[in-house]
Every structure is written in C-alpha cells, then in structure tokens.
Design goal:
By secondary structure, the protein is α+β, with helices and mostly antiparallel strands. It is built from 2 helices and 10 strands. The chain is 33% helix and 37% strand.
C-alpha cells in the first residue's frame, strides 16, 4: 500500500464508522424486542400488554401458542404445544410494533409420568393422582382420557349423565 492510499482510507474511516453506528442504532429497537422471551406453561395462559395501534398479530406456529385479544389492550397467550414459536405485532402500515419469542414448557411439578414399556401415561397429582391429557402420552392413554373428558363435558352441558 502506498502512503496516499493509507491517507485516503484514514479520511474515509470516520464516515464509515458513523454509518455503521447509525445502522446499529436504527436496528436496535427491533433487535431488542425480538430478543425478549415470553415463557408460557403448557395448557396455561400469560397476559401481555399490547402497544398502541395494533392491527395484526401473527403467530409463527399456532399449534405451539395461541392468542386472544382482550379489551384494554391485553393479549392472552395460551400454551398449546411444547416448543418455541414467535409472535409479530404489526400496525396498519405493516410496521413491526413488537416481536416476542414464545417458549412453551411443561408444567413444573405435580405431574407423574408412568411408563409401561414404551407406553406413557401422565398423572396430575394435586394431591390425588388423576389422569391428565398430555402431549406425548401413548395414543391409548390419550384416547381413554379424552373420551372420558368429552363425555363428562357433554353431561355437564346437557345436565344429564352420559349413557
């Protein structure tokens, strides 16, 4: 490199550094919002305050989390399946107002997994142990519990015992 090239590069360095700083500052709010994580327990809900002027809410995988908008700018986020997905909140112009990573985890404690070979059944022990419908249970255990739960709900709605 010649000394002329070094001087030319030295003159352009502050302008380039300023350009990099401006780009970093402009992208910082979106990056900070995207980095925030909302932890939700499976089959439970969390409340989240929405920003002003929300028009659209996008959930990356609705099998993992679902949302319901409530009055007063509240959002109810419900854990539907284990895993991680994202939520993007947009205004009418399509500008991103909020981004969140949603992580759905298993319930802490009070559950027992019973294995019979490769078959699994989950019990909720609060304090007595009863069958619980949990993703990952064997098809037989899931179907039996779901059938009983559906019959019970039907009986409660109609006011008569299921026969």
């Amino acid at each position: 490199m010649t000394s002329r090239m070094v001087r030319r590069a030295a003159k352009k360095a502050p302008a380039f550094a300023l350009l990099l700083l401006a780009a970093a500052l402009l992208s910082a709010p979106v990056a900070a919002a995207a980095g925030e994580e909302l932890a939700v327990t499976m089959d439970q809900a969390q409340l989240l305050k929405l920003p002003e002027k929300v028009s659209t809410i996008v959930i990356g995988n609705p099998l993992i989390a679902d949302v319901a908008v409530q009055s007063g700018g509240l959002l109810v986020v419900t854990g539907k399946g284990y895993g991680s997905t994202n939520m993007i909140v947009l205004d009418r112009a399509g500008a991103v107002l909020m981004e969140r990573q949603i992580v759905v985890r298993a319930a802490d404690g009070h559950t027992v997994a019973v294995y019979r070979g490769v078959e699994r059944e989950t019990l909720s022990c609060t304090p007595d142990c009863e069958r619980r419908i949990t993703l990952g249970d064997s098809a037989d255990a899931f179907t039996k519990t779901m059938t009983q739960s559906t019959a019970r709900s039907g009986a409660a709605i109609s006011g008569s015992p299921g026969r």
